[in-house]
Amino acid sequence: MQGVGRRWLQLTEPVVALATPVAAPVRAAANVAVPLDQAVAYVRANSPAGEPIYVVGRRADITTAGAPLIYVLAGRPNPTRYDIAAPGVLTSEPVQREIVADLARTKPKLIVRWDSPTTDAPEPNRAGRSSGVRTLDRYIAAHYRESVRYGDWVVLSSRDAS
Fold it and tell me: Domain for residue 8, yes or no?
């Protein structure tokens, strides 16, 4: 059935190739691929190669999905050791304090926020409940501002870099 569903989507929704060279020949629904390509292009145009960026979901107190692929597509390193937004890890106070310290030390000019409902979707388990820890969210709000939005992708710029 899964193959039938995928084929139905291919026939009914426009599918395009990602424009980012490293992603060739990956194809996705146009409403996913186009904003993703735009966000990656913005990052590549507004941060030097080798300069870190940070990728974060909608909220740090509850997370069910992340987007570490952005690091690969943009060709930019992660300034932290946490590539995956795992519930129980990213949502904990010690890890958020460590990430904030890494961000304060490396001062990335850009943060990419995946503002999709997927990133904090309710789950019928502990991962679907808020940890109450918003240390990382508060740091980002204090030090970054929205520069551009492409669909669910929001690129934040350092307030210090202006």
Answer: no
